């Protein structure tokens, strides 16, 4: 199997590359990313370096995409290259979200549909497409069937790209599957040119490294969400790629249960004894969450489809946290640097 992973030098997708290559010695990967063979990503997948081809360039550039298909027959694609949400970038250039996230997806699908050996195309989307609660939003775990609500350019462009990918599948008889992640933390979380908002877990690890309490707002203590380590996500995507048959066209990859921030702090404390939190006002807090954000994209996401069709299920949260911390502690200042 030869898998093209776009955005493969980034946070979550580098975990996908690692999970795919560690799972089978017969698998090769082509990693397409803006910066190409990024140092941190190359180190992360170093045990499998001999089975990786790197392509640097923009997903919207036809010649870059062509090169990604030039190493041999691509049997699978995981398309994760994206501009992620940040309001500042929306104000600066709203159209860039459509350009990168939708037109980039079209560019890739155009090439993929002419690849005779293509077996499955996975489009990486986000729980952001569930947006804010609307009529019909369930109080139980959020299922893949919606309802949908698209508040920001990021969600709008991710949902549009999902529909484009679905239509390509119908028009050209491709096995196109869409995956939606919840809130990801874990190994390789860092700022890229396409991502700047860090997870609460990142700030927790950073505070622990500095041996000081994590500053959170009062409201954060009553908030929560669905949090999953990038390692689990990587393994989930790999499982989906290898599943003999996907009965559905969309899958949530998530914890599957609502985790309160208090639970998250406790889970981390079991790996990092002495970790403390301190309530601070919004101007000083590192983590600010709204306890009223509880449903739709803020809810737990149902993962029955993933469990049934792939057998995948996530490790316990405390174990995910311990693995993340263990990874950071091998090179703390590079793996979890202080943010400006
Ligand atoms: N991090 C999360 O919590 C989360 C949640 C839901 C979904 N996702 C999805 O996971 C995927 C990866 O996101 P991430 O959080 O790891 O962000 P990331 O910024 O670390 O990864 C995105 C990668 O895409 C690359 N990229 C951006 N524009 C590109 C372009 N035009 N051409 C080529 N490469 C380009 C970037 O260089 C980067 O390495 C995205 O599709 C995102 O929507 C992430």
Topology:
Layout: E1 2-6, H1 11-23, E2 28-33, H2 39-44, E3 52-56, H3 62-68, E4 76-79, H4 87-92, H5 95-112, E5 120-126, H6 153-172, E6 176-181, E7 183-185, H7 200-209, E8 214-216, E9 224-225, E10 227-229, H8 230-242, E11 250-253, E12 259-260, H9 261-271, E13 277-279, H10 304-310, H11 317-329, H12 332-335
Parallel strand pairs: 1-2, 1-4, 2-3, 4-5, 5-6, 6-11, 7-10, 8-13
Antiparallel strand pairs: 9-12
Helix pairs in contact: 1-8, 5-6, 9-11
The protein binds nicotinamide-adenine-dinucleotide.
Nicotinamide-adenine-dinucleotide (NAD) is lined by residues 7, 9-13, 33-35, 58-60, 80-84, 100, 104, 124, 126, 158, 181, 183-184, 192-195.
Structural notes for this entry:
The structure is a single chain. This protein is an alpha/beta fold and 340 residues long. It has 2 domains: 2-183 and 227-253, Rossmann fold; 188-226 and 257-300 and 316-335, UDP-galactose 4-epimerase, domain 1 (Alpha-Beta Complex), CATH 3.90.25. It has helices at 11-23, 39-44, 62-68, 87-92, 95-112, 153-172, 200-209, 230-242, 261-271, 304-310, 317-329, 332-335, and strands spanning 2-6, 28-33, 52-56, 76-79, 120-126, 176-181, 183-185, 214-216, 224-225, 227-229, 250-253, 259-260, 277-279. The strands form 4 sheets. A 7-stranded parallel β-sheet has the order 3-2-1-4-5-6-11, with helices on both faces. β2 (28-33), α2 and β3 form a beta-alpha-beta unit. The longest helix has 20 residues, at 153-172. It starts with a strand and ends in a 5-residue tail after the last helix. The protein binds nicotinamide-adenine-dinucleotide. Nicotinamide-adenine-dinucleotide (NAD) binds next to α1, α5, β5 and β7.
